[in-house]
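Researcher: Go.
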Amino acid sequence: MRSLGYTLVLILLFSCSSNTEQSQGKSDSSRDLEEKLIYANKRAVKEENEQIERFIKRYKWQMKETGSGLRYDIYYQGIGDKAVPGKLAILKFSLRLIDGTAVYSSEKDGFKQFVIGHGGVESGLEEGILLLRVGDRAKFIIPSHLGFGLLGDQDKVPPKSTLIYDIELVALN
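Model: Structure:
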């Protein structure tokens, strides 16, 4: 019984070292691939950031930027309650792409509603709403990584799209 135990341990050690050697060969190529992907991602983020900066400059918007990359301007101050997680946010909005293409709006699609902090909307929109109080009107520029990302919304928003929101926080319930 004891020798069977030793044999199993030796087989296990051998198979682990063999797998390590095989995965070591793969890790060099996967490390190269990972480095290339990181470089491509950094380049794409830099290009999108430059595009956003050109857009802001062209329209002479005075935007603030959060640590995540969300740009915002609260251009009308409301006097209502501050947005907090767990509340149902009701928004009047228009959404367009950075190239000016109109995508969605409350005029066509009705008010946008979501429970803050529960997902279901772009993370940049969730982040931006938490900066507002009822009655505020704001512009958000949401980089693709805070929007619909690599896939788009599978409808009107293409992959890797920068989003431009103009919103009014109408109510919190």
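Model: The two ends are 69 Å apart (CA to CA).
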